[in-house]
Amino acid sequence: MQVGRTINRNPVSEELWNKTVEHVESFVKPTKKEIILDLCSGNGLLAMPLSTKCREVIAVDISDNLLSKIDHEKYANISTLKSDALEIQFPENSLDKAVLYFALQHFNLKETLLLLELVYRYLKKDGVFYIGDIPEAEKRFLFFNTPDREKAYFDSIQKDVPIVGQWFSRSFIEKAAVNIGFTRAKTVDQPLWQINAHYRFDAILIK
Q: CA 92 to CA 123: how far, in whole Å?
């Protein structure tokens, strides 16, 4: 509930979230030797299970309140950093992998390019950047799927207060990543059991 993983305003079940974590891990493939950067980590909902399978997770979020929810006694290899994701600073080629889940919609197109550049710089060669739950521009009206919701969407544009945030095409993500320097970039459908599978997708970028 704290980070918006809800269905009709009800928190998703623990079983469903565990399946989501397994889905993320199938792309990230964490190992005990690796340092993983979790951007916009919120309350550590993803950082905590990932930390059990890697050397360290660095959880970055702008909210002290959410970061304080992370159980550091149980997950001692999680370090937290209160920061805007666009202001992070790490040594170049120092991180093995990075994840950004259910958060890309908070960045406009220019900010997204900057974020990709930052992560690319800090990842080691062959490092993985997994971006999950990206709103797909071509499917926005599968989300705004009633006349009332359509009206709310267009009203939000006129007021410059978008309801979801930035919507992305798959080609933008793939081509932007390659333009920045990633050697491989692909987008993938979410499994149908995912709560947002009808209008969101995932991306895997390899340095």
A: 7
Name residues whose C-beta falls within 8 Å of residue 6's C-beta, 6 or more positions apart in sequence. Answer: 12
Half-sphere exposure of 199 (CA within 13 A, CB side): 14
pLDDT tens string 124-168 = 999 999 999 999 999 999 999 999 999 999 999 999 999 999 999
The structure tokens listed for 171 are 């080609």
Q: Does the residue 188 lie in any domain?
A: yes
Q: What is the pTM of this model?
A: 0.95
Task: Give the SS3 label for residue 80.
Answer: strand
- For residue 1, being part of any structural domain is answered with no
Q: d(Cα 205, Cα 115) in Å, to the nearest integer?
A: 13
Residue 52 and residue 68: Cα distance in Å, rounded?
19
Report the alpha-carbon distance of residue 25 to residue 47 in Å, rounded: 11
Average pLDDT in the chain: 96
Domain extent, residue 150, equals: 6-206
